[in-house]
Specification:
heterotrimer; A alpha/beta; B alpha/beta; C alpha/beta; A: alpha/beta; five-stranded parallel beta sheet; four-stranded antiparallel beta sheet; 7 helices; globular; C: four-stranded antiparallel beta sheet; 11 helices
Chain lengths: 227, 336, 261
C-alpha cells in the first residue's frame, strides 16, 4: 500500500545564505495492507520528516513515494487532496482546527467531506468519542479549550473516523493514561484487521511491540555527508 | 396676441430642432432616456421646464393646447404655462381634453380617452426609475444597457416587506415594449393602464435632468409586479362628490376643521363635462356651494406645494416668475 | 453527486488561467499568472500589500481587464465574452465577497431584500418564494429570522459579512471570489465566519479563490496556496506543504514572520 524507494529530502534555508541541509537520502520501505510498520531512530533522525513526506506535507527532493497508485513525490496538489480525503489518514501530535467548532463536528468532518450523510457521520463520531472517554458534555465545545490529553484523543477520533486504507500515526499513545492507551491500541489493531496499512512512530516500546509487525530504523536514511 | 419679442413658442429654431431630434430618437427607442441640452426657461426647475421645452418643440400655430396640473386646468402651474404659450406662440387653448391637440400635464393622464393625433407631454422631475436604488448615473446607464432590472423588484419587495403590499402609489415603474424600465412621472398608479395601448403620442420631458423619453402610439407597457402581488390600479374607494363618477381618480379635499372632507375628480374637465350632462354626486345636489372646483389639499398621489395654492387668490398664487409671466386673475387675453 | 465525486470525477478545471498580466503603465500589477482551479477547490492567494493579489483577483472577477493572458471558465473564454454575458455570469455562477460588507451590500435595503436581489435579477417574480429563500439563507448564515426586515446598517460587522455571503450564495454560484473576507473582524467573529465558510464550501462544493494576508485563515480554509510577490507567483502548492516546507526565499520569510500565539 505504501512503497518508498530511494527517497531523499533536503531543506534550503534562503534566509541563512541559501544553506542546503540534506536530511534524508536513499530512504526505502514498504507497508502492506493489514501491516503496521514502526519507524525508529533517535529524536531528529527524520521519523517525522518521513511521515510528513508521505502525507505530502513536505516536498520530496527525489525518489518515489507510492501510496496506492499515486506517487506523492510528483503528484499534483489536487491529487494529494483527494488521496488525503479518501485513502490516507494522518494522526499528528497536534490538533489544528477552526476555533469555535464543536468537538463532534471536528471528529465528523472527514466523513462529511466524503459526502457521508450528516447523521451517520455524527453517529460515528459520537461512538469514537465515547470510546475514547471524552465526556459527552464536552462534545458541543471546541476542543481548543481542552487539555493536551483530551485534544490528543479528539485528534485520534478524527483520524479513525473514516476507514482509511492507509494511516500515518505520529505518537498516538503519547500523553494518554493506561485506559485510553488501551483504546487507541485496540483501534489500531482493528484498523489492521480490516486491512489498513499503518506507518507509525511509537516511543512507547510496549505499544510498539504490541502493534508493529516490523520496525524500520530511519537512521539508515541519514545522508552520509551529514553523518 | 403673440409677443413679437419672442420666437414662436419662446425657444429659437435651432433649439427646437435639437429637442425634436431627441423626441424622435425617444419615439424610435420607446422608454429610453435620450439626453438633450435643456435650456434655461423663464420659470424655476420643478415647475415643468422639461415639459415646456418638449411642448415648445411640438407646437405648430394650428395647435390647440391644454395644460393640466394634477388633473386641473385652473391651478397655478397650468394657468401660467397655458398663458406662456398663448403669449409666445399665440396658439389656441382649451380645457376640453377631446378638443386639444397637445396636452401638457403634470401628475395625471386625462380621464377622457386620448385619440390618435394627440400629443400628451409629461413634466418629469426625476426620469431615472433606478435612481433611488442606485445613485451612480454610470451604473444606471449600464443597467439599462444590459437590462439589469432586478433592482426595480427589490424596491417593490421592500414595499411588500414593510407594508404588506406594494405601497408605491405613484411614479410606479413600467417596462416598455419588454425592454426599457421607465418612470412614468409621478402619475398615480391608477393612470398606469392608460400608458399602454394608447393611440396618442406620449412624450416625457425632464428639464433639470436633461432627459426626454417617449411612448409611441399603441406601445406595450407593463407595470412591474410579483406573481403573488399583482399590480393594481388603485384609487380612493369613493365616488366623486360632485359628478358621481365611480371610475375616475379622486382628490380628497378637506372642507373644514371638523374632519369634513369630500372626494372630487382630479380631472376638472372630465368632472365638469359630466356635471354638464346632468350627473350629480353626493354633495352637488344639496345646495352646498362648493367652489367651481375645489383645488386639492392633498392629492392621493403626493400633492406638491404649488398644487395646494388656491387659484382663485391671485396674490397667493403668484410664484416668482421671470419675463412678466405672472398670473393676472381672470383670463382676459385668453383665446385671442 | 457528493463533493468527493465532483472532485475526483471531474478532470476539467472550472477555471483555467494562463499567462495573466496586468500593467499600470510601467508598474506591474500582476505578471504571467497561470493556474487551474477544479470544482470544490479552495485556492488561497497570499502576499503582502502591493504583491498583486488584489489586482489578480479583480482581473479574474472581471472588474479589470488584463493586458495579456487567457481566462477560461467552464471551457468558455471569459475575456472574449460580451459584457452582458460576463455580468450575467457574475450574477449567477459567480459571487464576489468584499472585504468591507458595505461594498457588497445595499445598506438601505432590508436583509431579505439584499438576499433576494440576485434572485430577482435572474427573473424571480414570486414574492413568497423569494422571501422563503431569503429566510432560508439567513438561517444558513446564522442570522435570526426576525431580522429579515432589518437593514444591514443595524447589524454588527460579523453579521453584515454573513449577510453578504448569503446574498452572494443564494443563486447557487459555483465560483466565489473573496477579498480578505475576515479582515476587519474580531478574532472570535473571524473564527465563526471561517467555520461557516468551510461548511458552505464543503456542502455546496464551491470553488473559491480567497485573497488574504492572513496565513492562519488560508491554512484553515484553502486546499491550495499561491504566494505572490511583486506581481508574480513565487510559489504554489498544497497549503500545508507551502506553509510547513516553503521552498522560495520569500515564502520562508513570510512564514517565519508570523507571530506565534
Amino acid at each position: 500500500m505504501i512503497r518508498i524507494e530511494n527517497l531523499s529530502k533536503s531543506f534550503t534555508l534562503h534566509n541563512q545564505g541559501g544553506a542546503v541541509i540534506p536530511v534524508m537520502a536513499g530512504a526505502a520501505l514498504t507497508v502492506g495492507p493489514g501491516e503496521c510498520v514502526g519507524l525508529t531512530g533517535q529524536s531528529g533522525a527524520g521519523k517525522s520528516t518521513l511521515m510528513r513526506m508521505v502525507y505530502g506535507n513536505y516536498l520530496a527532493a527525489g525518489g518515489r513515494l507510492m501510496v496506492g497508485d499515486l506517487d506523492v513525490a510528483t503528484a499534483e496538489p489536487r491529487q494529494i487532496i483527494a488521496l488525503r480525503r479518501q485513502t490516507l489518514g494522518y494522526v499528528s501530535q497536534f490538533l489544528r482546527v477552526v476555533p469555535r467548532v464543536p468537538t463532534l463536528e471536528v471528529v465528523a468532518e472527514p466523513l462529511l467531506a466524503l459526502g457521508t450523510p450528516a447523521d451517520q457521520a455524527r453517529e460515528r463520531a459520537a461512538s469514537l468519542l465515547r470510546r475514547l472517554n471524552i465526556p459527552e458534555r464536552l462534545w458541543s465545545l471546541s476542543p481548543t479549550t481542552f487539555s493536551g490529553g483530551e485534544q490528543q484523543r479528539v485528534n485520534i477520533a478524527r483520524g479513525f473516523a473514516h476507514a482509511y486504507p492507509a494511516l500515518l500515526l505520529d505518537e498516538p499513545t503519547a500523553s494518554l493514561d493506561a485506559a485510553n492507551r488501551e483504546v487507541v491500541l485496540s483501534l489500531i489493531e482493528e484498523a489492521k484487521a480490516r486491512g489498513a496499512a499503518i506507518l507509525g512512530i511509537f516511543h512507547d516500546e510496549a505499544a510498539r511491540a504490541r502493534v508493529c509487525d516490523r520496525l524500520v530504523d530511519v537512521t539508515e536514511f541519514t545522508p552520509k555527508a551529514a553523518a | 396676441m403673440t409677443d413679437q419679442a419672442y420666437n414662436f413658442a419662446y425657444l429659437d429654431e435651432q433649439t427646437k430642432r435639437m429637442i425634436r431630434r431627441a423626441i424622435l430618437k425617444g419615439i424610435a427607442v420607446p422608454g429610453y432616456q435620450v439626453p438633450f441640452a435643456s435650456r434655461e426657461m423663464p420659470m424655476p426647475y420643478g415647475w415643468g421646464t422639461g415639459g415646456v421645452q418638449v411642448t415648445a418643440a411640438c407646437l405648430v400655430p394650428e395647435d390647440r393646447l391644454k395644460v393640466i396640473d394634477q388633473g386641473a386646468d385652473d391651478t397655478t402651474n397650468a394657468v401660467s404655462i397655458r398663458r406662456f404659450f398663448q403669449r409666445t406662440a399665440g396658439v389656441a387653448t382649451t380645457e376640453a381634453t377631446a378638443e386639444a391637440t397637445v396636452i401638457q400635464t403634470r401628475h395625471r393622464i386625462p380621464e377622457t380617452p386620448l385619440k390618435a393625433g394627440q400629443i400628451l407631454v409629461y413634466q418629469v422631475p426625476i426620469p431615472e426609475p433606478l435612481r433611488f436604488l442606485e445613485p451612480r448615473e454610470t451604473e444606471t446607464r449600464k443597467m439599462h444597457e444590459l437590462e439589469e432590472y432586478g433592482l426595480m423588484h427589490v424596491k417593490l419587495y421592500e414595499d411588500i416587506a414593510r407594508h404588506g403590499q406594494i405601497a408605491t402609489s405613484y411614479a410606479y415603474p413600467v417596462k416598455v415594449e419588454g425592454r426599457y424600465v421607465m418612470d412614468p412621472s409621478p402619475i398615480p398608479k391608477f393612470d398606469n393602464p392608460k400608458l399602454g395601448n394608447n393611440p396618442a403620442i406620449q412624450l416625457f420631458g425632464a428639464g433639470r435632468e436633461q432627459r426626454i423619453y417617449a411612448l409611441p402610439p399603441w406601445s406595450r407597457v407593463e407595470s412591474l409586479d410579483f406573481d403573488d402581488h399583482p399590480f393594481e390600479a388603485s384609487k380612493a374607494a369613493h365616488d366623486c362628490d360632485l359628478c358621481g363618477a365611480g371610475h375616475s381618480y379622486l382628490d380628497e379635499v378637506i372642507t373644514d376643521d371638523a374632519g369634513g372632507r369630500m372626494f372630487v375628480c382630479s380631472d376638472t374637465d372630465f368632472c365638469a363635462g359630466r356635471r354638464a350632462k346632468g350627473h350629480r354626486g353626493r354633495l352637488s345636489s344639496e345646495g352646498v356651494a362648493p367652489p367651481p372646483h375645489p383645488s386639492p389639499t392633498r392629492g392621493e398621489g403626493g400633492a406638491s406645494l404649488d398644487a395646494m395654492v388656491h387659484v382663485n387668490d391671485p396674490l397667493a398664487s403668484s410664484p416668482p416668475r421671470g419675463e412678466g409671466m405672472g398670473v393676472g386673475g381672470a383670463d382676459p387675453e385668453g383665446t385671442a | 453527486m457528493t463533493l468527493m465525486e465532483r472532485m475526483t470525477m471531474t478532470d476539467q478545471p472550472l477555471l483555467r488561467v494562463e499567462g495573466l498580466t496586468k500593467r499600470y503603465g510601467q508598474r506591474i500589477g500582476c505578471a504571467d499568472v497561470s493556474f487551474d482551479l477544479y470544482p470544490g477547490e479552495v485556492l488561497g492567494i497570499v502576499g503582502e500589500s502591493g504583491s498583486g493579489k488584489s489586482t489578480l483577483l479583480s482581473c479574474l472577477a472581471g472588474h479589470q481587464r488584463p493586458d495579456l493572458g487567457r481566462i477560461a471558465y467552464d471551457g468558455r473564454d471569459v475575456l472574449a465574452m460580451s459584457e452582458t454575458e460576463r455580468r450575467r455570469l457574475s450574477r449567477t455562477d459567480w459571487a464576489y465577497v468584499h472585504q468591507n460588507p458595505r461594498d457588497g451590500l445595499r445598506m438601505g435595503v432590508s436583509a431579505g431584500g439584499n438576499v433576494g436581489e440576485r434572485l430577482m435579477a435572474v427573473g424571480a417574480r414570486h414574492y413568497g418564494d423569494i422571501r422563503g429563500k431569503a429566510a432560508d439563507w439567513l438561517g444558513r448564515v446564522e442570522i435570526a429570522a426576525d431580522r429579515i426586515d432589518d437593514r444591514p446598517s443595524a447589524f454588527s460587522g460579523g453579521m453584515q459579512q454573513r449577510l453578504q455571503i448569503a446574498r452572494n450564495l443564494v443563486t447557487g454560484p459555483r465560483l466565489v471570489f473573496m477579498d480578505e473576507p475576515t479582515g476587519g473582524l474580531d478574532v472570535s467573529v473571524q473564527a465563526r465566519l471561517l467555520d461557516l465558510l468551510r461548511g458552505l464550501v464543503r456542502d455546496l462544493g464551491l470553488s473559491v479563490i480567497i485573497v488574504t494576508h492572513d496565513l492562519a485563515v488560508v491554512r484553515l480554509l484553502a486546499h491550495r496556496l499561491m504566494v505572490m510577490k511583486s506581481g508574480r507567483v513565487v510559489e504554489q502548492g498544497l497549503t500545508d506543504q507551502v506553509l510547513d516546507d516553503p521552498q522560495h526565499a520569500y515564502t520562508q520569510l513570510l512564514v517565519s514572520s508570523v507571530l506565534q500565539v
